[in-house]
Amino acid sequence: MTAPVEIQVRHTGGTAYLRRVGRRALAFVRARIRASELWLVVIAAGVGALAGLSTVTINAAARALQVILYGISPDIRLSTIPYLPVERLPVLALGGLALGLVTLWWSRRRPGSPVDPVEANALRGGRMSIRDSVFVVIQSLCSNGFGASVGLEAAYVQMGGALASLTGGVLNLRRSDLRTFVGVGAGAGIAAAFNAPLTGAFYAFEIIIGSYTTANIAPVVAAALAAALVSRLLHVDNLVMRTTVTDALSVSHYLLFATLGLVCALAGIAIMRLVALCESLASRMPSPRWARPALGGVLLAAIAFYQPETLSAGHGAMHLDMRSDLGLQALAVLFLAKAAASVIALGFGFRGGLFFASLYLGSLLGRLYVVGLYAMGAHIGIDPLTASLVGMGALAVAIIGGPFTMSFLVLETTGDFGLTAVTLTASIVASLVVRETFGYSFSTWRLHLRGETIRSAHDVGWLRTLTAGRMMRRDAAVTPASMQLEEFRRRFPLGSTRRVIALDSDGRYAGIIPVAAAYAEPEADGLVGRFTTLSDRTLRPDMSIKACMAMFDATESDELAVLDDQARPMGILSEAYATRRYAEELEKARRDLVGGEAEERS
Predict the structure, then answer these.
(1) Residue among 394, 402, 385 at smallest CA distance from 358
(2) pLDDT (0 to 100) of residue 577
(3) pLDDT tens digit string along 251-306?
(4) Phi, psi torsion values for 482, nearest 5 degrees
């Protein structure tokens, strides 16, 4: 009878021992990471391998769904099928219905939109939810796996960033290191998807982290290399093309490609605005929100019936179209069909991104640009395939951002440095035009439509923590405005405080009384309320430091009261303290930007 009890005791003791060992190991790793950057790089490489594995898994799941739902061979891409059978037309609508119902169920359990890596790094110090990210992956599979014209790159980046954020949270990383880790995971996802470590690394630098510093280069590159290695070991079918640019590129060629960058910028802005317009129109439809993706699926099926190249992200179609001798009309129809399919898919609620769609559309636009010039009788000496690759990079920059990211993608998929140079030219032009005339990438544009104001992944979350409610002094002196001046002087002698908050008969804010003003006329008497100032100039506790500083400038006052919703004083904030806190946070951000955390470790 005693044996089971003894076994149970031993089992419990063993579990407790393992927990103690785990806690000690975790504490050791945390201490090593803070003491040496090498440990951070090693952990980042492990995160990159994990992100690469998740990318491969997501891709395989989507391909398996397409094989089952469309009856295609596992070795071909959905977008390469010659025609869409009539019996397969309902698949897109069913996918939209499944997506809508799953989203409805999830939104009732967890209201609010999942945080993507850009938003996490810009506003939340790199904190992401693994559960929300798994749900984003499920949404992406319901979209891409059923054939909607969206890519899986958003799922790759989301899952990679979430895994990295989870790891960083367990290791109790500093804010700057956690933001780097989110970039590590997201960049690794892209590196694995394209078997392109440089592309993944610069995706992390330019789009997810928002900066390139000596402090983050080692972990980001290590993760991208690890993810690409996982992709190669598992023999993932990546985008690899070989081509050669025109033998002699003259100044006129660079000017032509710069013009192509301008064309891509305008096309990218138009596509992003059309997505927003389509969302607005779909939201006004009388159907319930969960049914919109199904309606979008009907429209996508109609487009795919005539242009099956619009199915899924378009990897296979892009390979075929780049090698085909398509005419001007065919290129224009295909570009418009793919653009319309992508806009409808995103506008009606399918989950995914425009990363690969922008690459495919850019390749079509680049070829259309050159074929159009030849049709007009211009002998420019540019291979249409070269223009396709340059357009691929330039339109992706216009929509996604990251000139170096897309230029390195062209380099790693072609191995041609000359082609990379002209792609960089077109990409920089596209980036400049979009920033000056539109100001957003696709991810930040979607956040803008939700009411956010960020334009990149630069860390501005600390600005939102510097609110009037957090910075105010809560021990501010208060007095009734009906108090006699003599009594006021007795309670607040000169030198005891500079200002006193006056209250009306209901205990609400009535203004600020400068103590010195009450002593300006020694013989004066009456109520102290006649010395109140700033009765209509106050701060709210949720006001950001920028709004507070603007109010200080407008009132030319060095202290303002902070009021709640009932106009009752909560405290007082001084301009000097707000300025000092702002300067401290700016200095901290500057140190993060130039690698200050790495300096502290040394």
Answers:
(1) 394
(2) 81
(3) 788 899 999 999 999 999 999 999 999 999 998 888 898 999 999 999 999 999 99
(4) -90, 5
Is residue 533 classed as helix, strand or coil in its secondary structure?
strand
Is residue 460 within 8 Å of residue 118, measured between CB atoms? Answer: no
Q: Which of 104, 166, 584, 71 is nearest to 349 (CA)?
A: 104
- Phi and psi for 509 in degrees, rounded to 5? -65, 135
Torsion of CA 426, 429, 433, 435, to 10 degrees: 100
Backbone angles phi, psi at 44, to 5 degrees: -65, -40
Q: What would the two tokens of residue 336 be?
A: 């418009």
The owner of tokens 């990295």 is 164
The maximal CA–CA distance of the chain, rounded, in angstroms, is 99
The H or E element containing residue 512 is strand 509-514
C-alpha 4/C-alpha 237 separation (Å) is 54
**Long-range own/partner contacts, residues 495-501 (CB < 8 A, 24 or more apart):** 498/559, 499/559, 499/572, 500/476, 501/476, 501/477, 501/561, 501/569, 501/572
Domain with CATH 1.10.3080.10 in the chain: 23-233, 251-454
Looking at domain 23-233, its CATH architecture is Orthogonal Bundle (1.10)
Angstrom distance (rounded) from CA 119 to CA 454: 8
246 burial (CB, 10 Å; 0-12 / 13-18 / 19+) is: middle
Cα–chain-centroid distance for residue 341?
23
What is the DSSP track for 471-490? HSBTT--EEETTSBHHHHHH
10 Å CB burial of residue 7 (0-12, 13-18, 19+) is exposed
Contacts of 293 (CB under 8 A, 6+ apart): 95, 96, 97, 99, 100, 103, 143, 348, 349, 350
How far is it, in rounded angstroms, from Cα 355 to Cα 462?
A: 29
> What residues have CB less than 8 Å from 334, skipping those under 6 apart?
307, 309, 321, 326, 364
CA distance 298 to 95: 10
Enter the DSSP assignment of 433: H
Average pLDDT (388-400) is: 93
* Contact criterion met (CB below 8 Å) for 419 and 390: yes
Please give the radius of gyration of the chain, using alpha carbons only, rounded to the nearest integer. 30
- The residues that bridge with 500 in the sheet, in sequence order, are 513
Residue 583's alpha-carbon distances to 69, 151, 410, 579, 600, in angstroms, are 58, 42, 42, 6, 20
Distance between CA atoms of residues 495 and 358, nearest Å: 66
DSSP conformation class of 313: S
Both tokens assigned to 183: 């970039």
CA dist 569 and 552 (Å) reads: 17
Q: How confident is the model at residue 323 (pLDDT cuts 50, 70, 90)?
A: confident
Strand-pair partners of 571: 562
pLDDT tens-digit map of 487-533: 888 888 887 788 888 888 888 888 888 888 877 776 667 787 778 88
For CATH 3.10.580.10, the residue range(s) in the chain are 463-584
Fold of 251-454: Clc chloride channel (1.10.3080)
Overall CATH class of domain 463-584: alpha beta
The predicted-structure confidence for 185-236, as pLDDT tens digits, reads as follows: 999 999 999 989 999 999 999 899 887 777 788 999 999 999 999 998 987 7
